[in-house]
């Protein structure tokens, strides 16, 4: 056996860091292609509606349970702190602000990243490794438009609706808890809750949900669409779609909150 | 080997490959190949796994771009078509994938309707139904119309994959390993189907395979791809009468072992 010469590879920082930045670059290019293709005909209305149904309607049960429990638990946990100052009457305001400003967009996005993101990653990954994406292409059907654009549109459009739905159900949960302890009426609870909410709060939450929905759609589609290494790759695509989407959602949350707070202060 | 069918039109070259090269990193899979395929001909490309056979038909279908050289399909250089031109060309090409590539979430009927409804929007529901039934009848699987791909056997999936391409009435059929993973009887059925498609639809076909039985049964000519080059092109009997040790060993391995 001859002597083996160790091959050296040159990385800008390290292998992992180079890969990370390459991935960011590739996802950005993927998003760029989305914006290029979304405005060009043919428009896939039927498939987009089908994907909206998959993303929105099929997530309702999970969002309902999670938001109802979140509303109850958050109210229950907040009461002792307010009770110390005799300020339990502020509970509806506190809960409404917390839910509408922060919890509803974030929790909805995390649920969607887990449920919808993994689904998109696995589905597109499976289609990729079984050559179904190539089959679409050779049938003169643009697979990016048919598979990716429709899914990204669906997650982007459905997340704000799911977020609003989640906020209302969470507030219902909060109301039940407040009513059971403080005997506050339905009208009184919601009047107090909404008095503390501004248009900026609602606007920022809808904006956040749009961005989170777009992120989930793009990241999970990218992971699925670029799957390699057969069935093992499908599992990796589903898993990394969720992890990457959640990671980006938290980063975006921090940035958007900072920007909104500048507006609020101004 | 079957006799060269009379309907092969040697005056009309449907696919012309010129100095085609393709590499993946340092792996040079195609090293400047040349080939002409005539109208109505079944051309078999033979070679061991990993020799670039599938790469060749993916280039012909516009799924991959060559590094150098040209691939003319119906007179058009595939690598230099824009997206719209490529789509127009693809409507004339049927591609049968190695793993059939049927859409999992759709029934057999939906798999067949899907390309038809998208490209021929003027067709009525009745016309689409008739086309689906006709394509299924052509592959002998009318009874599977409401089944999902997961409920079909490997051979049935291959046939449905072929039916899905036939429904658009392509001028060219590209078969990627049509008999891979099938038992000898089912393989023979697929070989018969490939010949039936040629006779009934007058297609020009490129069949990628490493199965000599398939090559012998369906090929008007065979091209042996070794080390990135065609080492012999001609009728099956002529090619395998060659003294080239590489071709002989390929033959011996298929028919002796």
> What is the ordering of alpha helices and beta strands of chain A?
HHHHHHHHH
With helices defined by DSSP (H or I, 4 residues minimum), what is the helix count of chain A? 9
Which band does the percent of strand residues of chain B land in?
25-35%
Total separate domains of chain A: 1
Helix and strand content put the structural class of chain B at alpha/beta
Largest sheet of chain B: 6 strands, mixed
What structural class results from the helix and strand content of chain A? mainly alpha
Poorly predicted runs of chain B: none
Q: State the end-to-end distance of chain B.
A: 21 Å
What percent of residues of chain A adopt helix (DSSP H or I)? over 70%
Poorly predicted runs of 5 or more residues of chain A: none
Give the fraction of residues assigned to helices of chain B.
Answer: 25-40%
Oligomer: heterodimer
Structure characterization notes:
The complex is a heterodimer of chains A (266) and B (257). With 266 residues, chain A is mainly α. Chain A has one domain (44-265). Helices cover 82% and strands 0% of the residues of chain A. Chain A contains nine helices and no strands. Chain A has helices at 15-38, 45-55, 60-84, 91-129, 132-138, 143-182, 186-195, 199-225, 230-265. In chain A, α4 (91-129) crosses α7 (186-195). Chain A is elongated, with a radius of gyration of 22 Å. The relative contact order of chain A is 0.15. The mean pLDDT of chain A is 92. By secondary structure, chain B is an alpha/beta fold. Chain B has one domain: Rossmann fold (3-Layer(aba) Sandwich). Helices cover 37% and strands 27% of the residues of chain B. Chain B has nine helices and ten strands. The radius of gyration of chain B is 18 Å and the shape is globular. The two termini of chain B are 21 Å apart. At the A-B interface, α5 of A face α2 and α3 of B.
